[in-house]
Amino acid sequence: MFDLIYHFPEQLEESLALTNQALKERKDFLDKINDIEKIVVVGMGGSGIAGDIVFSLTYSFLKSPILVIKDYYLPFFCNKKTLYFVISYSGETEETIFNYQQLKRNKLPLIVITAGGKLKVLAEKNQDLLFILPQNYPPRQALAYLTIPILLTLSRLAIIPNCQQEIEKTILYLKRMRKRLNERAKRITKLIENKIPYIIVDSYSYLPIAYRWKNQFNENTKILAFYSYLPEQNHNEINALPFLELLKDTLFVFLLKNPFSHKRNLIRINFLSKLLKENKVTHKIIPPISKNNFFNVFSLILFGDFISYHWALKRNIDPLKIELIENLKKFLAKF
To answer: Taking the model in full, what pTM does it have?
Structure first.
């Protein structure tokens, strides 16, 4: 697992090459797409989160709204003016295949991202735009391969500016930063012990980062986790904080800062830090790693992955195994 996390920059690099090749080979597909009003990403778990991360990366310049669907049914507004990304790393995710079949009944052109399975067979049969990913990754650690095809496709369709160079610069930045991020993660893990993490980000655009951290703590560290964002947290959950003294030995709060957050949210996060300190709740403010949004988003992903890994080791848990998820799939297969 450590090697998969550590080599995230190389995975981004390989994904860039694979994606550009696939787009070159299927230029005919992209030439037929026009008049896009909205973007829908269909995918579950470690696959679907690619759409969420793209939201964080493109929040300030995305020309069309993006919605990530993580369910069996699609919203009513899905139509021919919607650009669809259907993502399942394994190619066997039942919810995603169900969505694919719904869309194909309406004869809609689809962009499919997968490493194989039934979804790959269907996409090849229907001549969809298909991005075939390297195999033998846990889906949650294939994020680089799942995210880049969305970004470059949106770039080619002029829905976002060309981000090729930004991704290339991000890769170099992550290669320089990863050792430092790994060491920081080790130090933080010493503070956490067996507490429950509560991740708060200081902007809506970074909510997917908190969600990614939560999911990695769930799957790698095998621990419950919670997440929220400012300013929304200040309109509900904050009211429960005075009672956190009851949980001071149970909870560890991460306060993640976005370099582009509204200045009022910076005041809010300082207020929360003061409140947590008064109630003796262990917490850590994570300042922006970079003022470049691509650098910061991908660095926070890498940082959170490192924390989840070292925390799993500290708890004597194998971060790779996801036995309950596998058991659930076997159970569902009976029906």
So the answer is: 0.94
